[in-house]
Amino acid sequence: MAASYYVVFNPRSGKGRGATLIEPVTSWLRAQGFEVDHGLTEAPGDERRLAREAASRGFGTIVAVGGDGTWGNAANGVLEAGKPTRLGFIAGGTGCDFVKTLGIPGKDLRQCLHILAAGRTRRVDVGVVEGKRFLNVLGFGFDVAVLEDSWTVTRLQGDLLYLYCALRQLRNFPGFRVWITADDQPEQAHDLLMLIVANARVFGGAFKIAPGADLGDGRLDSVAFANMGLGRRLSLMGKLLRGTHEQAPDVKMGQPARLRLRFETAPTYETDGEWNRAHADTLDVHVEPAALEVLVP
């Protein structure tokens, strides 16, 4: 029996790029002799439902076409189904950061298709917050302000969009206060510009947030940026772009398996580029080691 692929398309991803990939992706896979079905998202989060239903129907491979949000939602659906299902990736979104850690070429469609056909896999960790899994990063503070700012910009896409919005928010974002408990350590208070809990290495298009992150180490990489004035923020931005911010005195790095984060009020946050509002002022974050099988080069 031919291998079965179910392809989840977000037609609105990448400001419409996802819709242009439907025919070339499905036609190419069928030409290789695979059994192929597909579904299109109609509302935010539909990737989760489509992937869960397809995995429950017995599809061996779910392919998610979109960006980080599409991939994160599809991963949730695959894991909720509880079946031995692989997840593959084709970049069709604005932010396509997770695959950079896997070595998948984000905008080279032909190479992405060949990776799907070759069938090479590895297992990767996933992070969890409020019952939702994330593949790439969980972010608070400045990160969320940049995401919200990006909704107002229509003339840019991809890495340039996030870089432009980040520069604007360097001046505007006020910072926030959070109390952090990492694994079994005592709780500590922090005044921060940004807190990133990373599973992978890159976020925001060009920022090497956790250069040493390992998708198979059973840990998360926490990166806490102290709140500071504009001049120091600009200096830190340059270090972040180069991936040399780990040595900066305003940055605290850690590799916890579990975090408890307590805020003054229920915060907003992002998981894999998707905006969320927390249900409470305290959040528990943990890692599920080697939880997901993914297709890789």
Any descriptors?
single chain; 297 residues; alpha+beta; Rossmann fold; Tumour Suppressor Smad4; 2 domains; globular
Describe the structure.
With 297 residues, the protein is α+β, with helices and mostly antiparallel strands. The protein folds into 2 domains: 4-119, Rossmann fold, CATH 3.40.50; 137-290, Sandwich (Tumour Suppressor Smad4). Helices cover 31% and strands 33% of the residues. It has 9 helices and 15 strands. It has helices spanning 17-20, 22-31, 46-56, 68-81, 98-102, 109-118, 142-150, 158-172, 230-242, and strands at residues 4-9, 35-40, 61-66, 86-91, 121-129, 132-134, 137-141, 176-182, 188-198, 221-226, 251-254, 258-263, 268-271, 274-277, 282-295. The protein has a 15-stranded mixed sheet that branches. The longest helix is centred in the middle third of the chain and has 15 residues, at 158-172. It starts with a strand and ends with a strand. 47% of the residues are buried.
Task: Supply the CATH architecture of the largest domain.
Answer: Sandwich
Stated plainly, the CATH topology of the largest domain is called Tumour Suppressor Smad4
**Element-by-element helix/strand order:** EHHEHEHEHHEEEHHEEEHEEEEE
First-to-last CA distance: 24 Å
Residue ranges: pLDDT <50 for 5 or more in a row? none
**Oligomer category:** single chain
- Number of H/I helices: 9
Number of strands: 15
Largest sheet: 15 strands, mixed
CATH class membership of the largest domain: Mainly Beta
Whole-number count of domains: 2
What does the radius of gyration come to? 19 Å
Shape: globular
Report the β-strand fraction as a percent range. Answer: 25-35%
Fraction of residues in helix? 25-40%
What is the residue-mean pLDDT, rounded to a whole number?
A: 92
Which class of secondary structure composition applies to the elements? alpha+beta
